[in-house]
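A protein record in our archive is deliberately plain, so that people and models can read it alike. The record that follows is passed on verbatim for readers who wish to inspect the format.
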Amino acid sequence: MQRYEVWRQLYTYADEWIQLKPWEVLWSNDFVALEINEKTYYCTIMGKLGDCIGVSIYEGEEGYADLCSIAHEYPDQAIAQYMMFEQNCLTFYMGDREEVPKGQKEIIKKLGLKYRGKGHWPYFLSFVPRFYPYEINDQQASVIVQVFKHLIPLMKAYMNHEVAVDFDNGEILFAHDHHGWKYEAIQRPEEQEKFYVVDLEDQQYLNYLKELPQTQNQYIIDLAYLSGGFIDERYDRPVSSLVLLVMDLLSQEIINIYMLKPEDDEDSICIQQLSKVIEKFGKPQEIFVRNPRVYSSLVSICDTCQIDVHITSLPMMDDVLGQMESFMQM
């Protein structure tokens, strides 16, 4: 019965959130942070434009780096999609009945709760990199309850003008227990890096690549998620399809393709696949990338091998990815 009590609390807080409507006064980039039991949770409140009503919760510095990464505007939708699937967070949404995970529909029925109409159904998802968004478990439900327990009174205080925050000048709304709960504006933390430049540690192999012949070839290298997920019995949740593609710019031919497994290290795969291409075809004159993960993985090795790296939009890759998605759905 204790399990259902956690979920009853969760839906009670969700109903209170919907009645409060804090998304009407905050934009999704107006960050809110709470320090609870020595852990910091960063929240983004969605729904200001009237769609995608919800709250995403990120834990700690790594969570803050994920939150910052999706707050940027990107020139390519593929990069935005990549960042979305690289998050580690818990999210509460309001949506249609069809969007509610099966397990949560059963809990709603068990608790005797009633929701009606389009956009009026609460549901909760867990985002984990390399996996498709999936319904939360009981422990994750407890985390959201803990956050909502303090987030709701914080938002009431803000909406009642008990605390002022200048979001436009880099402040965030912050709550912490300091001999009683205190609500205040603090300076937004410095943005955390999500991607770091990778150096190839095998100097002997790096020297080998460096001595290979230079060509006039130009390659496009992209790392992107395909739409949808698939079931793999080895994992306890659906897997997202993440693919690394290398295209010859002149011929528009895909010369290398690699589908990553959830346990693959993305940086290592980027380096590995570029190295294979260099060994097979020689060092290209230049490569074009759009994904910041690809850039941070390859910029060091390219510098050593005297390969120019350009960050740019890659609309031609969107066509290829679209064709791959269509093929996989057949």
Summary: The mean pLDDT is 94.
